[in-house]
Specification:
By secondary structure, the chain is of the alpha/beta class. It contains seven helices and ten strands. The chain has helices at residues 7-19, 42-46, 49-62, 80-90, 129-132, 135-140, 189-192; strands at residues 4-5, 23-29, 35-40, 71-75, 93-100, 103-106, 117-125, 144-153, 171-177, 182-183.
Length: 205
């Protein structure tokens, strides 16, 4: 099972990303180290609170009706606002994890309770590495992951949500599916053309 995206909603959300300036064209170095001619900066989408609230409600309505969500947990920094808006739309608690010494941890008094049902939220999923790093935090607390929710799916069908600590397979839901051209630095035509590269996002380097 990969990320489930409704094609009609995907078109609608892509237009919204373009309208809010979240979809960028140029020469970008991604957090993976690959280069691309496009980049999705979801922070620009959430710069407009109305737009942020709208995509959260779209996700809420896309989730299975019987899905129990007590808390939405997101990785800082990119997923924080998305997680908050989604929690508000779902009537759940909102919390985020931060990196400390390279590993995610719950700080600021955040605490998960045993048996709590947790939806993991990330604004953009490409490999899903960051959001999956939250799994140990949930499992160590005795809480239960019920799924993943993302605004933008860039995984090309390769994201595998897997199973939770109970052995149940969990779902993954996205609102917009985007496919960008990517190259290694050595093969990037933009590098060869001498076009300056930008390093967007919240990670240094």
């Amino acid at each position: 099972m990969s990320i489930s995206v409704d094609p009609a909603i995907s078109v609608e959300v892509e237009k919204l990303l373009e309208r809010t300036g979240a979809l960028l064209n140029g020469h970008f170095k991604l957090s993976s180290g690959l280069h691309s001619d496009r980049y999705c900066q979801c922070a620009k989408l959430f710069e407009d609170p109305a737009a942020g609230g709208m995509v959260a409600k779209l996700m809420r309505d896309s989730l299975p009706r019987k899905l129990r969500i007590d808390t939405v947990l997101a990785p800082a920094l990119g997923g924080v606002v998305w997680g908050y808006e989604l929690a508000r739309a779902c009537g759940a608690r909102s919390m985020f994890a931060e990196r400390k010494d390279g590993e995610f941890s719950l700080r600021r008094g955040f605490r998960l309770e045993p048996g709590e049902h947790v939806l993991l939220a990330e604004d953009v999923i490409t490999t899903g590495k960051s959001v999956k790093e939250l799994l140990p935090l949930v499992e160590e607390a005795g809480a239960i992951v019920v799924g993943y929710a993302t605004v933008v799916d860039r995984s090309r069908g390769e994201f595998e949500p897997g199973a939770n600590s109970k052995g149940d397979r969990v779902g993954a839901w996205g609102l917009c599916e985007l496919h960008f051209n990517t190259w290694t630095e050595e093969d990037c035509p933009l590098v060869k053309a001498g076009i300056p590269v930008e390093k967007p996002g919240s990670r240094p380097g």
